[in-house]
Amino acid sequence: MDYKHIETLVDKYFEGETSLQEETQLKDYFTKEHIHPSLEMYQGLFQYWVDESQVTLDDAFDIALLEKIEAQEAADSSASAKPKKGKVILLRTRMLYRVAAAIALVMTAWWSYQTIDKAAIEKNQTAIDWSEYEPQSVEEAEKLLAEAFSKINKEEKKQSIDWSQYEPKTVEEAMELTTKAFQKLSTEVTEGTSKATKEVSKVGELNKFFE
Amino acid sequence: MDIREYKTTILPIKNKLYRFTLGIIKDAAEAQDVVQEVLIKVWNKRDELDHINNIEAWCMRLTKNLAIDKLRSKHRRTEDIETTYSLSSNESTPFEQTAVKDSVSKIKNMIADLPQKQKEVILLRDIEGFSYQEISDTLNMSLAQVKTNLFRARQRIKALFLKTESYGL
To answer: Looking at B73, B100, B118, which one is the last position of a domain?
Structure first.
């Protein structure tokens, strides 16, 4: 092959402008043909690319890899076997729960039906017969009413507060109580005013700070 | 996805992943570990693969991230290219042997010393023969970014070659 053409291709190669086909031509030239002295310096490079492209892994690699994969699969399957067993138990347990729930539901329904039915019957049977409490005469009715009213009055008296015990007995006592009440009111008002004055003065100090 | 499908669709990507990883971390044993970890992750996510448009690009991204993580976690730093040059120039092994060894190690170091994005782009282009679009998909970069990174990476390598030639290193 014309070395001038190869020289041009080498220049194109280092400019990153060669096609894959041209690069193959260069590799072929530098590995197969007599190399022109001006191009010898690049022989090593193209020879290196060709040699490196022929590097392969041997069969021992495949064997080792596949053995590892098989070992991993075996380990995975033995590990996953346990959860599978667990799953079966879980499914069985779930089935048992479902059956138990269904039985419970049926029993509850049956019990409810029976209970409601019986209760209704008992209600009818044990209804209070008020007719036996009815007064037989007007006098008896009046007597019963009087008893009822007296009971109500007694209860009311028990519950009501007897305010009469707090009432002042004399005019002096009433005056004394009123004076004490006003004094108390006056003290509370004075304390409130002083507190308010203090707060207002604090606000005034704060205003000064911000000014 | 069962193991058969995995063997036919995922496993063949292993060599691309390995070469790409090797370009990033430069250690064959560690690169193998990374690829193995990635392929196991892919197997574990096999049920989600239907939602991924480009599985190869996705695997490459996974590999790249893991390789960079490994590199960072070990606080490994690629050797300084200038140091390598000075050391290699002092070697006293027979000329032809060292010439070949040096040539490869220099190139490796040149690539290792590239900024991360430039390195990723040039590895995918010059080793894997990816198109710009494939690189863009794999590295989540725009086409313009791919071209710029490739241009810069090659310019940098050219400059180092010229420097080597000038100083006879």
So the answer is: B73
